[in-house]
Amino acid sequence: MNKKLLAGGLFIVAFAVYGIFAFKENVNPYTNFKGAETAWGAVQIKGVWDQSKESSYSVEDHTFTFWLKDETGEIRQVLFHGSKPNNFEHATSIVVKGSLENNVFSSDRILVKCPSKYQSEQADGIKFQS
Amino acid sequence: MIYKSLVVFALIFFSLSTIGFFLATRKKEDRFDQWMLVSRLSFALGTVLITAVFAVLIYLLTTHQFQYNYIYSYSSMDLPLKYLVSTFWAGQEGSFILWIFLLGLIGLFVMQSSKDYEPYVMSIFSLAITFLITMIAGIHIGDITIGSSPFKTIYEAFPGQVPAGFIPPDGRGLNPLLQNYWMTIHPPILFTGFASALVPFAFALAALWREKYDDWIRPAMPWTLWSALALGTGIMLGGYWAYETLGWGGYWAWDPVENGSLVPWLATVACIHTMLVQRKTGTLKRFSIFTALFAFVMVVYSTFLTRSGVLADFSVHSFSSLGLYNQLLLFILTFAGLGIGLLIYRWKRIPYPKYTKEIYSREFAMIVGALLLTLLSIATIIGTSLPVFTKMWGQPVIIDAAGFNSVALPIATLIALLIGVGQLLWFSKTGLKTLAINLIVPGSLALVSTIIVIILGIRHFGMILLAFSALFALFSNLMVLFRIIKGHAQLAGGAVAHIGIALLLIGFITSGKYDEIQSYALPKDKEVEVFGYNLTYKGPSERDGKGAFRIVATKNGNEYQLDPIFYFSEYSEAWMKSPDILVQPTYDIYIAPVTLEKAESETNLNSLQFKKLETKQVGSSKLTFARFKPLSMNPDDIQIQLDFALEQNGKVDSISAIYGIGPDRIPVSTPGKTKAGVLLTVKNIDASNGLIVVSIDGLDDSSPVQKPETLIVEASKKPFIGLVWLGTLITMGGLSLSIFRRWKNKQIAI
Fold it and tell me: What is the domain count for chain B?
């Protein structure tokens, strides 16, 4: 029984180590554009869409380009490999995952945060609108 | 007010039954019978009241009582009945009511059938319901509000902003993404799973409480199977909804809300296996109890993660905060504390009979399988919670889908192998030699098919291993099914469920790893070849009452109509897009609309470039830049007249436009006009290159269209994605067979 327990224990430890490495490889720290300059590998940046600058979708490359203002206020161009997400206009904040390439943030994942997706208003502090 | 008091009285009754059942568990209690009577009555009355609350909310929704904030927030006059019903669970309060209502109903069944377990199990049941009712109580004690009431009026929700008794004429409506058939039935099914997961939890806790570690398995088993069935079906419907509606092309993103139902499902499935082993061999008493406790604690924990707002920054679809953080935290701490605390307290006293069977037994495969499932569920919940905990030390750490995939891949591979071997061992009771013989057919079939898929293009090493083990699991279980279908058909549930899992895994490989994606421009009425189909964009159409675009696809003389949805939603203040899917036996063609480019005709041309004396064909007309004549060269007020000749239908008209630069360097352009109403505007003058840029408007409509309206779509081909749905359905069918057998054989107590 002890041998079996030992085997089981070893197995669990091995899996834990594997799991940590698998997760770690895919961890993308949150930062801003400044942090992305020095970061090694992919990072995530949270910001808002700067609508005053042009955004466009290219059919040939299947990319969507827009400008993002990060939480420090820095504005940079983002090249997203995919189409413009649904509800992009309605997003209160946008999280992009990727890395800086030639001063353009090249991203393969966008998370669009919409307040109204399930819950249409916060519990308090929101004005009534009809 | 009267509606709120229904909730308050339900809260009182369930608190009473919690206490009453608890007191009845004390062995030396003289008033056992009285306490049981009081508690049963309270539980029944509480359930009646919750049913009334449920009915009241339906009534308020269907009669459009917009003075209530919940009704106002989620519904509107124009919603058809089926979507009015789904507004019930569109918000947190409604889905809590649904959950409580289902718990009440299940509780009544359990109360009837749990015999001497009744006071133990029912006090835990009543406690969980009591906690959940506090979430919707809306009671004010001093400055503190407990719960968020679904019966809050607009006036209470927005004090001072609207007059008392204010009734808005219409509600804000239901999120169009939720206006979908699957979203009507997905929440009730999922919450059935969440609610039934409390039964094994309560029985396992009662087992620790009573120190009787074996006889809880039998009454808890059908509910555990039922919970796995409901959770699995709910997860599949959610995935199908995402695939069909959201348009990002997939069905699973490892999002916290999705993981929140996956983790309890994995734990529940692990629990089924440990319970089976325990019943057969008497071992694994601790493990069975742990998985049963873990599954429901994970239900509560994921409720906490998704509804307290802690994950609001990290998930696309967490509910935003309703101020229930503290209550939800107390709920999870209580249930996790009760479970873990009692398990640790009793740990040493739980007997662990030696596992006497050999390693080559079906039971051993099930033990390892259950262990793997538990590890996967723990890894998933750790990965999901990481952002919440790492945020306390600074930057939150987020695991993306790739991280979860790489953890799940080796586990899925091992589990598939075990599914194959374990089921074969069931038949090879005599040991290794028979096993070896039984392995030949499914093993070689799997090997041959794996070689075929490698030739077909699978190169990723991990995927090849997963493909092999999934195919092996498939063939082994088909063989098992084949042999038992005669004579022992009622035992087929396990084989069927495992065939489903094998198909599901194969579907994951083909549709997840080997899909092709490409975007295309579809000019109106022009054929474009997409994945072997000729696609023609035909113009606007309608699907489910929503704006869409018609695309006709043809291949080998067959014609298909696709209507991807694309319209502007007033509710979301955004363009809503949903794909349309061309379903074929071996693949799906998935067409998601991206954008529509408006037609640009020559009658409305924006930037034509001219050199001096240059003539351009503009549709059926010819336009010549004849000359330019400075009117004023004063640096503060430059004015230049530009003369054009327009030849249209054999007639020549002249147009003179004026372009000037004012004192503040701002260009001023005065358009020229012909008698027929053609308008020419100079947009820019590039003096150094001798170029001018003009726009012209109002030419004959007979001129040919230069650039037609063009629909941009994202098309993807997903091979064998049908296996994902088919596999899940077959697994659920297998689970149903197992439930049916136990029910028919009266092995269960209901």
Answer: 3
B321 vs A51: CA distance, rounded Å = 28
Whether B706 and B477 have beta carbons less than 8 Å apart is answered as no
* Averaged pLDDT, groups of 10, chain B, 750 residues long: 92 96 82 90 97 96 93 91 90 94 96 91 97 93 88 87 86 86 91 96 96 92 95 94 85 89 96 94 92 96 86 63 86 96 94 78 91 95 89 78 91 95 77 82 95 89 95 95 83 93 95 86 90 93 88 92 88 81 93 82 66 78 83 80 84 85 76 82 77 78 66 91 95 93 61
User: Left, alpha or beta for B323 (phi > 0: left; psi -120 to 50: alpha)?
Assistant: left
Report pLDDT for B297: 97
B589 and B635 in a single domain? The answer is no
d(CA B291, CA B298): 10
Which residue among B374, B399, B424 closes a domain? B399
Q: What is the CA radius of gyration of chain A?
A: 21
Q: Cβ distance B21 to B123 under 8 Å?
A: yes
Q: To probe the interface with A, which of B397, B522, B591 has the most A CB atoms within 10 Å?
A: B397
The residue segments making up the domain with residue A96 are 29-113
Name the burial class of residue B534, with classes exposed (0-12), middle (13-18) and buried (19+) by CB atoms within 10 angstroms of its CB. middle
Give the Å distances, CA to CA, from A129 to B69, B158, B162, B185: 12, 10, 10, 30
Burial of B373 (0-12, 13-18, 19+ CB in 10 A): buried
Residue A107 identity: S
CB spacing of B403 vs A62 below 8 angstroms: no
Residue A11 lies in a domain: no
pTM recorded for the entire structure: 0.83
pLDDT computed for residue A97 by the predictor: 86
Pairing mode of beta strands B667-670, B615-618: unpaired
Give the per-residue pLDDT at B339: 96
| Cα separations in angstroms, B558 against B468, B553, B561, B709 | 36, 8, 10, 25
Residue A103 Cα, gap to closest chain B Cα (Å): 23
B530: nearest Cα among B476, B469, B591:
B591
Domain for residue A109, yes or no? yes
Host domain of residue B628? 601-707
Residues B685 and B556 in one domain: no
Residue A117 is predicted with a pLDDT of 38
A–B CB contacts, 8 A cutoff, strictly below: 136
Rounded Cα–Cα distance for residues B192 and B98 (Å)? 9
Asked if the structure places residue B456 within a domain, the reply is no
pLDDT (0 to 100) of residue B318: 52
Question: For residues B430 and B441, what is the distance between their CA atoms, to the nearest angstrom?
Answer: 18
Indicate the burial class of B687 (C-beta count within 10 angstroms; 0-12, 13-18, 19 or more).
Answer: exposed
| Host H or E run for residue B35 | helix B32-62
In chain B, which residues have their Cβ closer than 8 Å to the Cβ of A116?
Answer: 175, 571-572
pLDDT of residue B600: 67
- Whether B241 is in a domain gets the answer yes
Whether A63 maps to a domain, the answer reads yes
Report yes or no on B315 lying in a domain: yes
> Are B519 and A62 in contact (CB < 8 Å)?
yes
Closest C-alpha among B305, B252, B248, B321 to residue A110: B248
Q: What is the ipTM of this complex?
A: 0.71
Number of domains in chain A: 1
Q: What are phi and psi of B650, to 5 degrees?
A: 80, -5
Nearest to B681 by CA among B669, B689, B698, B690: B669
Q: What backbone phi and psi angles, to 5 degrees, belong to B568?
A: -90, 125
Q: Which residues pair with B713 in a beta bridge?
A: B520, B593
Res A28 pLDDT > 90: no
The alpha-carbon gap from B175 to the nearest alpha carbon of chain A, in Å, equals 7
- What are the structure tokens assigned to B714, written together? 């994202």
User: What residues contact B626, with CB distance under 8 A and at least 6 apart?
Assistant: B613, B643, B644, B645, B654
